[in-house]
Specification:
The structure is a homodimer.
Chain A lengths: L3 H8 L3 H10 L13 H17 L17 H11 L4 H21 L2 H13 L4 E4 L15 E5 L4 E5 L7 E4 L8 E10 L2 E11 L11 E5 L12 E5 L2 E4 L9 E2 L5 E2 L5 H10 L2 H28 L1 E4 L6 E3 L4 H37 L6 H32 L11 H8 L9 H14 L14 H7 L11 H9 L12 H30 L8 H6 L2 H25 L4 H21 L1 H6 L5 H18 L3 H6 L5 H4 L10 H16 L18
Parallel strand pairs in A: 1-5, 2-5
Antiparallel strand pairs in A: 2-3, 3-9, 4-8, 5-6, 7-8, 10-11, 12-13
Helix pairs in contact in A: 2-4, 3-5, 4-5, 4-8, 4-9, 5-6, 5-8, 8-9, 8-10, 9-10, 9-17, 9-18, 9-20, 10-11, 10-12, 10-17, 12-17, 13-15, 14-15, 15-17, 15-18, 17-18, 18-20
Chain lengths: ~675, ~675
């Protein structure tokens, strides 16, 4: 089957950006060099970033006025394509143009744009995004760095009060960064107005730290060796007033603070909401790395043979083993599902941000919160999928998968931190859960440490699951299914209904338990500490978030299949969608059995159906990875570079030798079930 | 609670070896150096291996006559302790003294011992174990390297017929090895007698490859950078007749082949069975790495704080979060369970090998097969547990876990290949399954590629699960439980019975399906290819193996608790055992629900019981890792080296600043459920 139509379905709305990247991003510096030192990796990646800047392909997200494309979706897509090359380069680019440049663009005002954006885009001004501190990663509202205004000098005093307040894990800091967007508590006229951002020089033109600025190096990491992560400490550093990125909060020369958004928490989350693009990019980048790993593992599994069937001479290709298929194919199906979910997210993000930033429309708060929640959920799904799938691919490629030259070690080590940065996955699941529990009506970031649990009870009336893509299509499919029993498992409506039921039930259960705990909290006889009230149901709450993510991903896949016009591609995608849905349900069989949505007999049928889908999809494994259309020179996996015909030549030699002197261990007693030790 | 008694329970029969290691292995070269190059790592590890040899602590497994201890259990234990230091050193030592030295010792005869053992033990003769080929890892009976005898010269011709026959991934080959134990097909008088081993010089005294020997380098790997893995190719290399390691097969000067074991497959597996110690060592080493990772993660989780409860100023220690406990504690419980299972395995292996090698007893074939099966199962369990747990620990330590200086990156990268070498885990599970299916009666390594499936039907009569440790105790506990319903889940007998039931049921189901397929194979109307006959049930067969492993691990834990005399330690171990048993059952709730061994109501109770066990064990987390008794200087994790009191000092400073200018975001609206992007 021609993978071109499949590829078209996967490439989506910004296919032209993907095509351009495939055709034009071929700087050898963009690929990992196996065995290089950390210093060499950093140099190479900095060089590659500079080359990338010169290619003009880094301006997607910036305003046209400064040479950009004002194309948020294109910006994310270009990062996703970069993620097929050295992930250190993808992160370096993301820091420079996504986080640093993005913060100047979206939190700064005109004077900042005019002064700095062009140099940021050209990489003449390398910079950092200095938010995280050693002591505070997830709870950013509790940052300890302070920035205190002095009207006498009309400057701020930026200060790191102790070591845990040190900015840490900051990309572009240890070597290259000349300026940093620094997040700190804004204090003026004796009042703390919460976290804001300033543009602060950290190195002079000679590369030396500015006065009062101490720059440290995080040293070698598990991966991403080409990214110079470092630490920044500020010792009463003077920052001019106009270096406050003042789009959402301003300080007058006399120190008076003003903001168009009165509520501090709302202001803080509004500021940060503009930076959602980074989280969307991380999810999409994880997906690219996953696709590359699967590409390598599927091709390896087509070539690698071990153990012969009785009576056969030629050994069996490992992709023919059921258990090997069970490793690769459901992961491939989930990758396809996430591709469509990500495409939908990027599209939504693009439309929302374009409306606000390009057309000056008012922010639709609820749409913004849903977008952030969706971005969080898909960041979680794609990064955990990446780390687990790449691990599985390494093991599926045996010893060869352990050699750096076959790419998988870098993919694993580099993506490992993706489950932590841009939001720790566990904490992000809570963000998603909060959105579900409050129906996104809470725009203040509340459920404030669980104290105001009554707020939850008020906020949630009837649980109506918001359908996402192709609402009409989904509704039609689901309504066509009368119940959940006796419906064939390959009925799309049944699959959707199962995931909807699970999400609704989990959500209702979480709400019920939280309400119960909230009344218990104030019980005179059995008071429950507020912490315990929430902690007690934390696993249930996170489970709810995960069921939600599974459902919206399936809906996106269903929509993606529906939009596919080529009949052969559509048929294949249909089967892959079946595999995604059924393997997702199978993975949580316990829940469905426990809640009566599967009988024991149906549970057995489910496993058998998954196995028969594996058989059905086995012949299409190569087509499914071909459709990722990863250019051969991006793969940097020696195992894929074998000359054609070599395996056959060696097999012929083996047969000849066997004819000469016999097979050794007599035929019929070779077994796949014994593995000698020591190898 | 004083961890000393707990430690005693964990240290087991070779506690003296562990104590000696803790007290005396403090060569700084033994620890990873973060940021070193591959060349530096190799040099340091070779140096450390030499120092280790000089300490005299490498001879545990060798005969007393040559300076060894003839202590197989001590040998494995010493490797387990080494695995707390640089895992490259553990692998280097395992290759030199376990595989290379072990092969010379157990496959060679007196003249080989007298000529080489002392130099091997002193490291004056570094050597390799050259079994694996590029084309054949798991199916070692299909090695392609040949070794053909020529009576005219009384020498063998060792030859690599094509590139896939190249010895690959051979530790100690790329730099240091002077000789190799090479496995190849023995051909004499026109007949191939199967795989045998020869001792072959590969480098001369100046370090140059011997004539006809080509040595390649596998290059940088994902981890284990201190191990010089390489490739060996032989171009008609002349090997003197007396270099055949001829304990189990001999070639006379005229080329006549003789062996005390007539059947070739039996001979091959007997040879390799002697090397089971390597597989046992890998499992135990994985366990050590796991313990170190958990030690770091638990201590980190006791210090790291994020998000405050409502009304509180001090943030919450992350080990107090339910979901964080759910990550760490079940893994800790499983680590304890595996500790006792490994201890039992090592003890059995020691007794079996001592009886055979020291006291000259006949090999009890069934005991040997059970030992090999047990070694395979625990290798699988401990290595997958290591890789998954270390991954979880890295994520649980956030960004700090990603810095090499905090040890976790090395632990993850180094242990990653443990699921592949010494037997690919998936293939090993099949070995375990085969033992179950045939009741270990098959001593010939058959179920030969599934052809002789009738053999299975003959071999398996009634499925009686062999109980392992403390048979009387286990029987008593299980018999005390009348059924499976309505029995309290904290009843040990119920837990054991559940796992026994699952194993028995899975095994019976696998046999039933294999028999059914075997009749289908020869059906004239619906013939099933022999490959499909087995492939069709491969997932069920592997599942059966996993249920068996879970059961025998629980039995070992139960026995271990029973042997613990100190009351406080025993009580704590009891609770940990409960957590192991119940979290194991919970992880496979689907199976138990599907087969009626849990009702939906009981399934809910199960989760609630696990959660309450987490609460109960939370205060003991530090004690549980203290009991691993890992010396502080072995940990090499910067995050553990903080000065006491520093966190308190910084918290006091924070409180002071808060008093001065307010908390920033008003109290009561800080939430743990929002995570800003970009960090």
């Amino acid at each position: 089957m021609d993978p071109a139509h499949l590829q078209e379905a996967l490439d989506g709305r910004w296919a032209h950006v993907r095509r351009d990247a495939r055709e034009n991003l071929h700087d050898p510096d963009m690929l990992p060099v196996y065995g290089e030192s950390m210093a060499e990796a950093r140099e190479r990646v900095t060089r590659a970033a500079r080359t990338l800047a010169q290619s003009g392909r880094v301006g997607f997200g910036f305003p046209k006025e400064f040479g950009g494309e004002a194309d948020a979706g294109g910006s994310v897509t270009s990062i996703e394509m970069l993620a097929f090359t050295d992930l250190s380069l993808m992160v370096k680019a993301g820091v420079q143009w996504g986080l640093f440049g993005g913060a100047v663009q979206l939190l700064g005002t005109r004077r900042h744009h005019e002064t700095y954006l062009r140099d940021i885009m050209s990489f003449d001004l390398p910079g950092c995004f200095a938010m995280t501190e050693t002591g505070h990663g997830s709870d950013v509202q509790q940052l300890r760095t302070t920035c205190t205004y002095d009207p006498a000098t009309q400057t701020f005093d930026l200060h790191t009060p102790h070591e845990a307040a040190r900015k840490d894990y900051i990309g572009n800091a240890a070597e290259d960064g000349r300026m940093a967007v620094v997040f700190a508590q804004l204090i003026t006229q004796g009042t703390n107005h919460g976290v804001h951002a300033w543009l602060v020089p950290i190195r002079d033109e000679d590369g030396n730290p500015m006065p009062g600025v101490t720059i440290g190096d995080d040293g070698p990491k598990a991966g991403l060796l080409g990214v110079d992560n470092g630490r920044l400490t500020f010792d009463h550093v003077t920052v001019p007033r106009d270096m406050l990125l003042d789009r959402y909060g301003q300080v007058a020369s006399d120190g008076t603070y003003t903001s168009s958004i009165e509520n501090e928490t709302r202001r803080f989350f509004t500021m940060l909401g503009t930076l959602v693009r980074g989280r969307v990019s991380v999810g999409g980048s994880a997906a690219s790395a996953t696709k590359l790993a699967l590409d390598i593992a599927v091709r390896y599994g087509n070539a690698r043979r071990q153990f012969a069937a009785p009576g056969e001479e030629r050994e069996i290709v490992i992709n023919d083993y059921l258990v090997h298929q069970r490793k690769l194919l459901p992961a491939l199906a989930r990758t396809y599902a996430l591709n469509f979910a990500q495409a939908e997210l990027v599209s939504t993000m693009h439309d929302v941000q374009t409306a606000v930033h390009e057309h000056g429309q008012e922010i639709d708060e609820q749409a913004q919160r849903e977008l952030e929640s969706r971005a969080a959920g898909l960041k979680v799904a794609q990064t955990w999928h990446a780390t687990q799938t790449i691990q599985m691919c390494r093991e599926a490629c045996g010893g060869a998968g352990y050699l750096q030259e076959n790419r998988l070690p870098h993919l694993k080590a580099d993506t490992d931190v993706f489950t932590t940065f841009e939001g720790d996955n566990t904490v992000l699941l809570q963000l998603v859960a909060k959105g579900l529990l409050t129906g996104y009506r809470d725009t203040f970031g509340s459920l404030d440490g669980w104290g105001r649990i009554g707020f939850v009870a008020d906020m949630v009336r009837e649980t109506v699951l918001e359908r996402t893509a192709a609402r009409a299509l989904i509704a039609r499919l689901v309504d066509a299914v009368p119940g959940l029993e006796d419906v064939p498992m390959l009925e799309r409506g049944w699959q959707l209904k199962m995931l909807e039921f699970r999400e609704k039930h989990a959500l209702e259960g979480a709400i019920r338990r939280l309400r119960k705990n909230s009344t218990t909290v104030s019980s005179p006889t059995h008071p429950m500490a507020p912490f315990d009230m929430f902690n007690d149901v934390q696993d249930h709450v996170l489970k709810t978030a995960q069921t939600h993510i599974d459902r919206i991903v399936l809906e996106a896949f269903v929509d993606g299949v529906d939009r596919t016009t080529d009949p052969a591609a559509r048929t294949l995608l249909d089967a892959v969608c079946d595999l995604y849905a059924l393997s997702t349900i199978e993975a949580d069989k316990a829940w469905f059995l426990e809640h009566g949505q599967l009988t024991p007999a149906r549970a057995k049928t489910l496993t058998a159906t998954v196995n028969s889908l594996l058989k059905q999809l086995r012949p299409h494994m190569t087509t499914l990875v071909d459709a990722f259309a990863i250019p051969a020179d991006w793969k940097a996996a020696a195992i894929l570079e074998e000359e054609p015909g070599r395996q056959e030549a060696m097999a012929a030699r083996d047969a000849e030798l066997r004819r000469q002197h016999g097979a050794g261990t007599p035929e019929g007693t070779a077994t796949d079930l014994d593995v000698p030790p020591g190898q």
